[in-house]
Amino acid sequence: MRAAAAAFSTTAPQCKRKTKDGNKKRGVSSLYGSGPREPLSVSDAPLPKPVEFKPKIEVDEGHGLWGFFPAPGKLLLTPKETEEHGRAWTVEELRRKSWEDLHALWWKCCRERNMLATAREELLRGKFGFGEREIGSRDEEVMKTMRAIKHALTERFYTWQDAVEVAKSDPEINLEAGEGQVYTPSAYEEGYDEIAAEEEAPRSTDKEPKETLR
Known about the structure:
Elements: H1 79-83, H2 91-94, H3 99-126, H4 132-168, H5 186-200, H6 208-213
Organism: Trichoderma citrinoviride
GO molecular function: structural constituent of ribosome
Keywords: Mitochondrion, Ribonucleoprotein, Ribosomal protein
C-alpha cells in the first residue's frame, strides 16, 4: 500500500493570506491613548469633562499647628528670608527679665525650632538642594538663646538656695510659719513702740510756770 504524500514544489503558495485581526481590543491602549481602529457607535458622543471641585473648608488662622510653618498658608521660607534673623540673647540681658518673660521667650524658641525642623524635612523630601546651611545657622542662634535662659534660671535657683540658708540663721524669720507671716521684725517693732510712746506723752513742763505766775 502506498501512503498519500503531497508533491514537492518550490513555488509560493497561492492561498489567500489571513488579514482579519482576531483580537477585538487590538490597538486600544491606555498608555498611548490610542482608540479602536474602526469607529464605534458612541464615537461621536461628547465625553464628560471633570469639574474643578475645590471644597471650601474653613480653617482657623490662629490654630496652633500653624506654628510649624512660617505663616498660615506658607510652607517654606526662601534662603534669603531664613538668613534675616538677629543674634542670640546673652545671659547678661536675660538676668533682668522676669519669670514670665523668660517663660514666653523659651516657648517662642521652641516654636521657632519646630518651624525650622519642618522646613528641613520638606527640603529633604523635595530634594531641593538648598537652604540647609541657612536653616542650620538660624537654629544655632536659637539654641544659644535657650542655653542662656537655662544659665540665667540656674543662677536664680542657686541664689534662692543661698537666701534660704541665710534665712534659717535669722531669728526674725520663721520659715515654718506656713501661710502666716514669715518675717517678724521684733527688734524694730519694740523700738518703734518706745518712740511712739515718747511722742504721745503730754509736754506740761512749759505750762506749769505760767500758771504759778498768775
